[in-house]
Design a protein that fits this description.
The chain has about 475 residues and is an alpha/beta fold. It has three domains: about 170 residues, no CATH class; about 60 residues, SH3 type barrels; about 190 residues, Zn-dependent exopeptidases (Aminopeptidase, 3-Layer(aba) Sandwich), CATH 3.40.630.40. The protein is built from 13 helices and 15 strands. The protein binds zinc ion.
């Protein structure tokens, strides 16, 4: 009886976080064993059927999933923006998250090529972007890895950027990027100091709660912070007795003055400085707009408009939205609001409805010169053409062309104005896209690209802005 209680007590204090993983093809003396098992401990790599296949090449889908788990991205399988990554793909969640975080882009035509094998250079770029090193070229990314001792280069001194990377080497690089204690001959540089705000803060071996704890810090403990991994930071106390990972949310961070801060180039002037884009999501409040396929036009166009706003905001372009919430605004007020908020270009967003069979995208402008209440007919037409063209490219729906109409927000406006009908809410093909957040994001990108095309054709040097439309 006494013995049984003792056993219970012991087991209560020794509940393992996770049973140790062993791969039949990675012995403890294998050259990358330490790094592979470090990642396995945090479920960042899982292998398959007890094997890791260390000498196999790694696919883009596998690589993005591993890095995604390392930095704590949302890996829930879901719809993606890529034509070759269905929601049922094991990597769909990580691929979509990685795209949204800007560290994995696709190829033209909307392809991600999930099964394509990854080169050492691509791996460097993935890691550099995912861990926030900000390199945008392969060469710069390789230098970031070398300077942090994540890579020591290949034996011949060449990184071998064009060679395919083996799964074992990929694991080594990711493990070293996460945990600087795994980097050979590396002395951490502490760019931030932290103070623990929680009454007791567990220190873990890796950047997630899956990793076991190796100690704890009490409130107000001073920390040196070496780097960030997702929502976690690798830290050491000032006595350097405990080094590990803590959740960033329980630490107040301050930057340390480091003498050799690289000089940042002066900010370049935004080529659209002085221009305000007006986004006008149609309907709202008591006016739902068109109804169909379980969707309401007012919701679809508001969300698309908010996505346009978010892109413009990120790009540093000034904007005004006639409505940012589900409220009713009379038509007559919309051009007035646009003008009173300094608008220069007006884009109204709507969805169509007819007989269920009609389908496609069309964009309007006001074109009746004889009753020119809006004097900007030529510019409005250019704006409508630019947006229509981009919407067709991004959405791939039926081309119902650029058209003229006497819509109030076009006719009585005082600036170049267009109105996009994204698709038909009562048509199954169109409604699938109207009802999808991923597709609405692409519509928003198309609208912003169309606006840029319009300004470019109007003589603005906006070429530097195109790369900023997508994160
Ligand atoms: Zn409408």
């Amino acid at each position: 009886m006494v013995l049984a209680i003792l056993v219970l007590l012991i087991s209560a204090f020794t509940i393992p976080v996770k049973a140790a993983t062993t791969f039949s093809d990675v012995s403890s003396s294998y050259r990358a064993a330490k790094e592979i098992y470090y990642l396995a401990e945090g479920n960042i790599i899982t292998g398959s059927n007890g094997s890791f296949h260390p000498n196999s090449d790694i696919t883009r889908a596998e690589a993005v999933s591993i890095i995604g788990r390392a930095v704590g991205l949302n890996g829930t399988q879901r719809e993606t923006r890529f034509v070759d990554v269905p929601s049922t793909s094991f990597a769909s969640g990580y691929i979509q998250s990685a795209f949204e975080k800007g560290f994995a882009n696709g190829y033209s035509g909307g392809y991600f090529k999930p099964g394509q094998h990854v080169t050492r250079g691509e791996m460097a770029l993935f890691i550099s972007k995912a861990f926030g090193y900000h390199a945008t070229t392969t060469d710069a990314a390789i230098n970031e890895l070398l300077s942090r001792h994540i890579s020591e280069g290949m034996a011949n001194g060449d990184f071998g950027g064009k060679e395919l990377i083996k799964r074992a080497d990929f694991a080594v690089f990711v493990a070293r990027a996460i945990n600087d204690e795994l980097r050979p001959n590396y002395k951490p540089v502490y760019l931030q100091e932290g103070t623990v705000t929680a009454s007791s803060l567990l220190v873990r071996k890796g950047p997630s709660t899956i990793y076991g704890s190796i100690g704890s810090f009490t409130q107000n403990t001073k920390l040196n912070v070496s780097h960030t991994v997702g929502n976690w930071i690798q830290v050491t106390n000032t006595a350097k007795t405990v080094t590990g990972f803590v959740s960033k949310q329980y630490v107040t961070l301050t930057d340390v003055d480091v003498p050799e801060v690289p000089t940042t180039p002066p900010p370049t002037k935004n080529p659209l400085a002085g221009q305000t884009i007006v986004i006008d999501p149609g309907h709202g409040g008591t006016d739902p707009g068109a109804l169909g396929s379980g969707l309401r036009e007012k919701d679809v166009v508001l969300d698309t408009g908010l996505k346009v706003r978010n892109i413009l905001k990120r790009m540093g372009i000034s904007y005004y939205m006639t409505r940012e919430t589900d409220v009713f605004i009379v038509l007559q007020d919309r051009p007035v609001l646009a003008q009173s908020h300094g608008g220069d270009t007006f884009v109204s967003i709507h969805a169509n409805k007819f007989n269920g069979a009609a389908n496609g995208t069309e964009t309007y402008y006001y074109g009746a010169a004889a009753t020119a209440t809006n004097p900007y007919i030529t510019k409005s037409k250019l704006l409508a053409q630019s947006i229509q063209k981009r919407l067709l490219t991004e959405w791939q729906l039926n081309d119902r062309k650029v058209k003229t109409a006497n819509y109030y927000v076009l006719k009585y406006n005082s600036m170049p104005s267009s109105l996009a009908e994204l698709g038909f809410i009562d048509n199954p093909t169109d409604a699938k896209k109207l009802g999808s957040s991923v597709w609405r994001e692409r519509a928003a990108e198309a609208i912003v690209l169309g606006i840029l095309d319009y300004y470019k054709a109007s003589g603005y040097n906006v070429s530097s802005l195109y790369d900023k439309v997508r994160p």
